[in-house]
Write a sequence for this structure.
């Protein structure tokens, strides 16, 4: 199964709401991994996505030809109040999924700016243009006293949404997986490659599959297709207004177990590689030193926040989501078996 076939798949248990009124829905972050899945799902559920992006060419290059005629595009800067408000004013609802995992201050990408200030701009534009329905993407583990700035900034963005006076719904996903996501691309490289390029060109051996800490913290990997389905389905669910949903796959597992499943499932996996943990103290030291250098490919580097996040459980009760949205969440191993061969090398 290639990536496009995977993206179009929907088990019969999921109800799309066909026949109901179509909405024009603005999507922020539409060029990203989750954003592209949302755009595809909007079309599948009979809506008209309006993608607010910096580069139309980049977005269209990432979308299959079959979708391009069904998608509207508005180029602009979310931080340009006039541009963004004008785009919002042409729509019936907004799905806000802009987010970052790693800060790049020199490029203006900080948690405070991308998570908090961007969300404030979205809320302000919705209120100014009379658009009431807002779907907001947060993260599982978000709370005001979280040990990482990532989660604290996500909480601050949620607070802005909850206090907006709009008809909002917030989703907090666990780890999101799919063939064109950075996480699964990183896993494929660690499991299938015998070497990785240091400084971009020097091959160095990669003799084991590393995880952070003892690997016993639990996660609940959720398919990007399920995330997109629920976010879009919420548009037609009045009972989802002013509700927050945690969103994970149907089964919790340890980080170590998830890595082993990937090693057992991915074509070309070097199954002789052991899965080995890095002590947290050494991982934090590496994050503060060598991980700041271009020794490893960017997708294999990590920072201190990511080390801390990896030591927390990221699990939830899936019943509220399954009952509200009429969905049977996809099993991680079964789903990975379907798309593993299409993960880019």
């Amino acid at each position: 199964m290639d990536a496009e076939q995977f993206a179009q798949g929907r088990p019969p248990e999921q109800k799309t709401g066909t026949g109901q009124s179509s909405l024009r829905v603005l999507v922020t972050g539409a060029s990203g991994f989750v954003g592209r899945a949302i755009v595809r799902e909007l079309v599948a559920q009979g809506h008209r996505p309006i993608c607010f992006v910096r580069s139309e060419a980049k977005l269209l290059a990432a979308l299959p030809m079959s979708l391009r005629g069904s998608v509207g595009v508005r180029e602009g800067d979310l931080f340009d109040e006039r541009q963004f408000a004008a785009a919002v004013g042409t729509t019936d609802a907004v799905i806000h999924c802009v987010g970052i995992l790693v800060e790049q201050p020199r490029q203006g990408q900080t948690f405070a700016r991308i998570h908090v200030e961007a969300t404030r701009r979205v809320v302000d534009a919705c209120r100014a243009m009379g658009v009431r329905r807002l779907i907001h993407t947060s993260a599982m583990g978000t709370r005001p006293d979280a040990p990482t700035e990532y989660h604290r900034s996500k909480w601050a963005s949620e607070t802005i949404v909850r206090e907006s006076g709009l008809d909002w719904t917030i989703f907090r996903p666990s780890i999101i997986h799919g063939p064109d996501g950075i996480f699964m691309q990183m896993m494929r490289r660690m499991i299938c490659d015998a070497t990785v390029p240091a400084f971009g060109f020097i091959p160095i051996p990669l003799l084991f599959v590393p995880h952070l800490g003892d690997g016993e913290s639990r996660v609940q990997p959720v398919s990007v297709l399920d995330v997109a389905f629920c976010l879009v389905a919420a548009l037609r669910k009045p009972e989802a207004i002013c509700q927050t949903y945690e969103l994970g796959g149907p089964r919790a597992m340890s980080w170590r177990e998830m890595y082993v499943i990937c090693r057992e499932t991915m074509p070309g996996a070097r199954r002789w590689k052991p899965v080995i943990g890095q002590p947290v103290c050494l991982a934090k030291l590496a994050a503060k030193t060598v991980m700041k250098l271009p020794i490893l490919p960017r997708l294999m580097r990590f920072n201190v926040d990511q080390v801390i996040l990896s030591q927390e459980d990221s699990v939830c009760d899936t019943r509220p989501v399954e009952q509200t949205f009429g969905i049977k969440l996809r099993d991680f191993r079964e789903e990975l078996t379907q798309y593993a061969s299409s993960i880019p090398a």
User: Anything to note?
Assistant: The first strand starts at residue 24 and ends at 28.
